[in-house]
Amino acid sequence: MTDGYPxxxxxxxxxxxxxxxxxxxxxxGLAVVLLAVIGASxxxxxxxxxxxxxxxxxxxATTAPxxxxxxxxxxxxxxxxxxxxxxxxxxxxxxxxxxxxxxxxARRQLHERKLGWRLVFGAGAGRNVERxxxxxGTTVRRGVTVTLxxxxxxxxxxxxxxxxxxxxxxxxxxxxxxxxxxxxxxRRGTVTAQDPAAGGAVRWxxxxxxxxxxxxxxxxxxxxxxx
Length: 227
Known about the structure:
This protein is an alpha/beta fold and about 230 residues long. It has 3 helices and 8 strands.
């Protein structure tokens, strides 16, 4: 019997869907678990592979050791020794030790060494040398003049007779006597006059004038005026 409305098809209720829904839920959950397990396994594999690469030693450049029988040696740098140059006077001349020596003996030693001398007399007493310039031991060249400072004053000396001697020989005699020549008419010829005259009293280092060669001509005297 109907109530005048078409018959409606009834939809399945919760009781009708129960077994199928349970199967779907179980299948979905199993799939999720399986995917999770696969993902974890893949990550472990990747991680283990990276760790193996990280633990692998890195090659480094090394120097091969020397052979057992060879002993390494280091050659010292070669150096050239410096060259020392010393300058010495001709013949290795040096000023002798003359301090305290009689000035005539000191002069003789200088003369033997081909050195000149210059005497400077003082105001004290004695004939000994007090100091020299250059100093003793100084390297000098031949012909260098050495100055001698003498303690006392210049002693007196007599003038030698030089008239008639060769001018050069007369000069040497004056120097030997402690005097010095002066030339009025040149240095050639025979000594015809000298000043002071022979035997005159002078002192060491005093000059003596020499006239060598022909004496200077004397102009003729003018005639006397006639008265």
